[in-house]
Amino acid sequence: MRALLLLLALALATVPAACDGDAGEGGRSGGDATDATTTGAGGDSAGRTGDLPPAPRVETVARDLEAPWEIAFLPDGRALVTERPGRVRLIDADGRLRERPVATIDVTSQGEGGLLGLALDPDFADNRLVYLYLTAGDAMEVVRYRLADRSLIRQASLVDGIRAGVIHDSGRIRFGPDDRLYVATGDAGIAELAQDRDSLNGKFLRLTPEQYRGDGGRPEILTLGHRNPQGFDWQPGSGRLIATEHGQQALDEVNEIEQGSNYGWPVVEGADHGDFTAPVTVYRETIAPSGATFVTREGSDWTGDYLFAGLASEQIRRIRLDGDRVTVDEALLEGRFGRLRTVAEGPDGALYALTSNRDGRGSPRPGDDRVLRILPPGEGD
């Protein structure tokens, strides 16, 4: 009998504990993500690199922001930054944050909503058009503005019919190499919307130039079955669209976004997707991945790598893709700056990250949201 009880105890110890609720963008769930391992779609463990990598150099460019969400660089080296309560801020080319916003926008900012994504028109140098993604009432909006001097002037709302929720609003917008505007949407906390082909929620959407420079309209649905994607970029050379996505409790994903694919939420999650499109990588412990970029600058140790910010895990994650295999996977800057919302490559080849410590999640640190400039190992100024 004692032997039987011992075997039963050992068996139960291998079963993951069930958790109610959703860790989402909040605190860590299921333990410390410091030593999180990754599993590819085929079930092979990518793991972390064995030797400690050289440390990147980090400096603060601007501070005293409030829950910054996205950054976009103007052709003259200045940058626009969105703040979730509804402000668009301007950072001069010398790194000075202007006190007066270029726009103050009425948004619904409860939960994970507010002023989120930001993207510049591919012809911005000529037309000065800026696109914002925000929550207004119970809906998400993609809105076109024009930058005149140091003010944004609203022109048109381009997309309606995307439901907003207290959670899972996604929020990232970005222009692709095809000059189309890509929009990631979450399930707004209503999981079944991700599989509803009549809904724009839980999808990757795409707008043509005629739509985003005109009166908008219903976008093309590129993919479905997403829970809460928050970052994406195109791999140099291959042109593959790679995206991050929040899992439930843990099981955060990195996916290759391919037209017509179904990523399974809420029917399946994890590495084994059956008839649905499987992730490139699944994290077994919570990272809460957000904004992402590929490193395109030549000559650094990270050239060609995919980097994404971690909220609950307070890190930047660096992975290297060889086809569908993850050959490098490591945590950077872990715990040094708190929650990290996004990482983007600047026109100077450096990386810029936004902290997200004043967004109502965890313990707010007044005055601690900032823009960081990061130089990868092997780079000089």
Secondary-structure class: mainly beta
Largest sheet: 5 strands, antiparallel
Q: Cα distance, first to last residue?
A: 69 Å
Number of strands: 25
Helical content band: under 10%
C-alpha Rg, in Å?
A: 20 Å
Q: Kindly state the mean pLDDT as a whole number?
A: 87
Question: What does the overall shape look like?
Answer: globular
Give the ordered list of helices and strands. Answer: HEEEEEEEHEEEEEEHEEEEEEEEEEEE
Total helices: the number is 3
Please mark out the parts with pLDDT under 50 across 5 or more consecutive residues, or reply none.
1-23, 27-50
Major beta sheet, strand line-up:
1-18-17-16-15
What fraction strand?
A: 35-45%
Outline the structure in words:
The chain is mostly beta strands and 381 residues long. It has helices spanning 2-13, 124-127, 209-212, and strands at residues 38-40, 57-65, 68-73, 79-83, 87-91, 103-104, 115-120, 129-136, 139-148, 151-163, 173-175, 181-184, 203-207, 220-224, 229-234, 241-245, 252-257, 281-283, 289-294, 306-310, 315-322, 325-332, 340-345, 351-355, 369-375. A hairpin with a 6-residue loop joins strand 16 (241-245) and strand 17. It is 5% helix and 39% strand. The termini are far apart. It has a 5-stranded antiparallel beta sheet, with no helix packed on it. It has a 4-stranded antiparallel beta sheet with strand order 2-25-24-23, with no helix packed on it. A 4-stranded antiparallel beta sheet has the order 3-4-5-6, with no helix packed on it. The longest helix is centred in the first third of the chain and has 12 residues, at 2-13.
